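Researcher: Structure for this, please.
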Amino acid sequence: MKKTLLLLIILTLGALFKGHVEIGKASTKTINGAGATFPYPLYSAWASQYYKEKGIRVNYQSIGSGGGIRQVTERTVDFGATDMPLKPEEVEQKKLLQFPTVIGGVVIAINVPEVGDKSLTLDGETLCKIYLGEIKNWDDAKIKALNPGLSLPSKPITPVYRSDGSGTTAIFTHYLSSVCSAWAKDVGFGTSVNFRVGIGAKGNEGVANYVKRTPYSLGYLEYAYAVQNKIGVSNLKNAKGKVVSPSVDTFKEAAQTAQLDPAKHFYVFMTNAPGGNAWPIAGATYILLAKEKVDINKEVIKFFDWALQTGDKIALELHYVPLPERIKTRIREYWKKQGLF
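Model: Predicted structure, C-alpha cell format:
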C-alpha cells in the first residue's frame, strides 16, 4: 500500500513538473525572423503587444529583403520577410510558403530647404531621369514644369538609394520599369540593381537619415520612416495623370485591384495601379516559411493570425494598410491547406 501511494506521489509530481517545464518553455519561447526593413516598425509594435498578451517573444531583425530571403532559404531563421514577392515557381523550388501581411507605400523623401512646407510634385519620367543622372539640378525644366508655383533652387540633386538587397528597391524599380522604357531596358528591377548615380544607404533607416541630414537630396523609402523622421515627401502623378499625396487612403486604392491569389502564393506587384486616387508606388510585404518546419511554422502562424485579427489598429497608426478581410480569409485557407492552421 505504501509503495503504491509513493508511486502515485512520484507520478503526480512528475506530471506537475513536466507541466511546469512546458508552461515555462511556452512563456519564454522566442520566434526568430529577419528580412525587410519596410515593415520593421509594424512588426516591432506587433511583437511588443504579442509578448504582453501571450508571453512569447518575436525577435525580428531588420536586415533587408535580400537577407530575409537568403536566411529563410538557408533555414537559419524561423521566418523570412520580403517586400519583393518570390515568383510561384521560386517558392516551390525553394520549398517555401509565402503570404502577405500588410500593404504600404514607397514615397519620395526630399530635402529642399527652399520648398519648406509647400508641396512639390514629381512624376515617373522625372524620377527615372533623376536616377539615370539625366536630370541633375532641382531647377531642371521638367521639375519646374511640374511645379509652376515654386521657386526651385539651382542646386545639384543628390539621389539616395538602398545599398543592401531591398524589397523597397524592388517595388521602386518595378515602378520605374513600368513607366520608363529606358529604365526597363538599361537597369530593370530587383532587390539590387546597378544605380547609375547617387549615394547608397543601408535600410530604410539609412535612407531616411541621409536625406534628413543632406540638403538637396532625394530618396525612396517606406512612408512610416518619412513620418517618423519628419521628412518632407513629394506628391506624384499616378497612372491616371492625377497628382496624389501619399496616405493610407491612396495606398488602399492602389491595392484594390491587386489579384492576391493563394494558388500563386499571393505573388503580385501593385505599382502604377489604375485607380483614380491610387498612389503609384505601393506594395504588399510578405512572410516566407520553410515548408518542412511544421511545428515552428504553426507558432509563427499563431503570431500572424493574432496580428491579422487584432493588429489593424496598430497598422493604421503606423500608416500601413491592413489587408482586406477577404484576403485574410484566403490566407487562413492557404494555411489550412498546408496543415498549419
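Researcher: Any notable elements?
Model: The radius of gyration is 23 Å. Residues 106-261 form a domain with the D-Maltodextrin-Binding Protein; domain 2 fold (CATH 3.40.190.10).
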